[in-house]
């Protein structure tokens, strides 16, 4: 496909923010696209040259992109940065630079979508000395062959942010409208297939070639992580028990651990560990791979569980914020294994010796789980669990969980199937109230004085009813200088525009925040304000779609 055609189409998508109109434009376009190109369109229009579970990364930063634009156009880094800061978008700056370029490339090759996609994928393979310069050269090569509009989208694709507002929901409905009948049921079929495969290219091609039956037949496959089932929140143990299952015999209780959700894929000696964000973190956890290799008896399986770090001296669980250092650390792994040992608590199995278990009730899945591994205390265990006998025994179990330093309990419905990616109420979490909120950073302000290099005041948003972010307060305490410096680095990469000391950010960084109370307040878009918010942690394991909702805030407000 000519890249110019792709760029024109992206312009049309960008020109409307009406969801239905976007779905229609995208669906019409998918219908006209030839079969081989559909997966490319589906990937690039969402800015995803790699899916999160592919270990590769393009490795293109904003700084590198500025150099590439300059190399291709010769307009000068300062001018590019000026336009970038005026428009808030490096893609726009690239378009401007191509329009004003002072050097023309001698040999220009027409740009195709295939070439852009393949070139960007190849960048991930560059390694070692000179690899950054080679990346600059390749991106510059693409920009040199671009007209202004094409350059805009080349740069946005390289940076992984298309600014078109095409999220998973738009893509789901567009695939359903392009290749199925566009009904709500068709969208659901597409969504389910995506939750199981996390591969929209595959989902779109299957919908196109094999329709709804084909989608239904798409199944879990090892080494392609699924979206894990999520929990609803109950306001107390009694409510939770009532909510989770109609039959008392179906209520299953487990400790709720404060660790990292992992899914572990096993095929003989091939073992991989993925996070809830579907990232492959196998290299960080050689100890988990070893434990699985020694204790998992199933030849092929997909296990769901929580990894919890503990204090080597005392055996006490450590807070997630400390444990998360192990997830991020990509060097000196052996030292981290010693310093922060982990226990793997397993609580589900989604595929076992070739059988997909999504449709199997939890009761039977747990039997399968027991057959899939041999526990080893402190290394690999079943999550501590108990059937609900009486309300008193359930409460004792909850208190035991808290006394042992865990977050609370999960209540699960033993008769329920596994719903990837959904908060359907088949599992419910119960934790003490006034618990921290997970909020996204929407804006920030440069500090003054000693911390003037830092974005020290952070505006926080919860999710409103439209899935947008509504602000609920600002945060300026709770972090150490070190944490603030790391946070500033992270946020600087997300700056969209600056006005004096205030910066607007792409809402991507999720923070866990504690506070003393929630008040009603006209000052913020949400209508609420957190009283005395304090920073607890950066939740790298959560995406913006996971931040707490306005409904949650309202419930907490009413209950306090
Ligand atoms: P929280 O911030 O309360 O951990 P969350 O947004 O991370 O919530 P939820 O779906 O609300 O995620 O809560 C479920 C999470 O609890 C799971 O993703 C998992 O990481 C963790 N967890 C701990 N123990 C269990 C357990 N026994 N069963 C299921 N999930 C558990």
Describe what you observe in this structure.
The protein has helices at 3-14, 19-32, 38-44, 62-73, 77-87, 90-99, 113-123, 131-144, 148-159, 168-179, 184-197, 200-217, 237-244, 286-295, 320-328, 333-339, 362-372, 391-403, 481-492, 550-559, and strands at 232-233, 251-256, 260-267, 270-275, 300-309, 342-352, 355-356, 380-382, 385-387, 408-413, 427-430, 437-446, 455-463, 469-475, 495-499, 502-505, 510-514, 517-520, 528-531, 534-538. It is an alpha+beta fold. The longest helix is centred in the middle third of the chain and has 18 residues, at 200-217. Helices cover 41% and strands 20% of the residues. Helix 8 runs antiparallel to helix 9. It folds into three domains: 47-159, DNA ligase, ATP-dependent, N-terminal domain (DNA ligase i, domain 1), CATH 1.10.3260.10; 232-430, DNA ligase/mRNA capping enzyme (D-amino Acid Aminotransferase, Chain A, domain 1, 2-Layer Sandwich), CATH 3.30.470; 437-559, Nucleic acid-binding proteins (OB fold (Dihydrolipoamide Acetyltransferase, E2P)). The strands form four sheets. Strands 12, 13, 14, 15, 16, 17 and 20 form a seven-stranded antiparallel beta sheet that branches. Strands 3, 4, 5, 6, 7 and 8 form a six-stranded mixed beta sheet that branches. It binds adenosine-5'-triphosphate (ATP). Adenosine-5'-triphosphate (ATP) is lined by residues 230-231, 254-257, 261, 276, 306, 347, 383, 410, 429, 438, 546. It comes from Halorientalis pallida.
């Amino acid at each position: 496909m000519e890249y110019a055609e792709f760029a024109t189409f992206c312009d049309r998508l960008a020109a409307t923010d009406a969801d239905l109109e976007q779905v229609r434009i995208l669906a019409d376009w998918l219908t006209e696209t030839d079969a081989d190109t559909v997966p490319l369109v589906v990937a690039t229009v969402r800015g995803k040259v790699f899916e999160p579970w592919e270990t590769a990364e393009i490795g293109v930063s904003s700084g590198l992109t500025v150099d590439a634009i300059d190399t291709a156009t010769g307009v000068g880094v300062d001018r590019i940065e000026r336009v970038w800061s005026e428009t808030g978008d490096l893609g726009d700056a690239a378009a401007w630079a191509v329009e004003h370029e002072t050097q023309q490339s001698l040999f220009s090759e027409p740009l195709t979508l295939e070439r852009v996609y393949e070139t960007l994928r190849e960048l991930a393979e560059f390694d070692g000395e000179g690899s950054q310069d080679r990346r600059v050269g390749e991106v510059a090569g693409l920009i040199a062959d671009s007209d202004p509009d094409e350059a805009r989208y080349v740069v946005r694709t390289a940076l992984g942010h298309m600014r078109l507002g095409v999220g998973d929901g738009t893509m789901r409905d567009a695939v359903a409208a392009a290749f199925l009948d566009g009904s709500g049921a068709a969208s659901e079929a597409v969504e389910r297939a995506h939750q199981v495969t996390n591969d929209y290219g595959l989902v779109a091609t299957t919908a196109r070639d094999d329709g709804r039956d084909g989608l239904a037949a798409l199944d879990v496959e090892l080494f392609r992580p699924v979206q894990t089932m999520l929990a609803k929140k109950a306001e107390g143990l009694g409510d939770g028990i009532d909510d989770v299952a109609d039959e008392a015999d179906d209520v299953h209780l487990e400790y709720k651990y404060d660790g990292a959700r992992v899914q572990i894929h096993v095929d003989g000696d091939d073992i991989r560990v993925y996070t809830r964000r579907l990232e492959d973190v196998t290299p960080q956890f050689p100890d988990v791979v070893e434990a699985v290799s020694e204790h998992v008896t199933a030849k092929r399986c997909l296990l769901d569980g929580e990894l919890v770090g503990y204090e080597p001296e005392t055996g006490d669980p450590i807070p997630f914020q400390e444990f998360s250092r192990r997830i991020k650390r990509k060097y000196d792994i052996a030292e981290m294994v010693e310093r922060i040992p982990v226990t793997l608590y397993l609580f589900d199995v989604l595929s076992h010796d070739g059988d997909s278990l999504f449709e199997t009730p939890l009761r039977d899945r747990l039997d399968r789980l027991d057959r899939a591994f041999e526990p080893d205390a402190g290394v690999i265990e079943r999550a501590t669990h108990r059937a609900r006998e009486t309300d008193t025994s359930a409460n004792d179990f909850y208190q035991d969980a808290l006394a042992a330093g865990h977050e609370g309990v999960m209540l699960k419905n033993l008769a329920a199937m596994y719903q990837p990616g959904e908060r359907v109420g088949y599992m419910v979490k119960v934790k003490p109230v006034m618990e921290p909120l997970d909020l996204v950073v929407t804006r920030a302000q440069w500090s003054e004085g000693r911390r003037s290099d830092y974005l020290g005041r952070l505006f926080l948003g919860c999710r409103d009813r439209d899935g947008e972010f509504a602000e609920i307060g600002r945060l300026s305490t709770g972090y150490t200088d070190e944490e603030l410096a790391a946070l500033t680095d992270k946020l600087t990469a997300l700056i969209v525009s600056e006005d004096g000391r205030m910066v607007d950010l792409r809402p991507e960084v999720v923070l866990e925040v504690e506070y003393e109370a929630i008040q009603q307040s006209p000052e913020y878009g949400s209508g609420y304000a957190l009283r005395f918010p304090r920073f607890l942690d950066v939740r790298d394991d959560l995406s913006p779609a996971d931040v707490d909702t306005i409904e949650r805030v309202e419930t907490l407000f009413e209950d306090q």
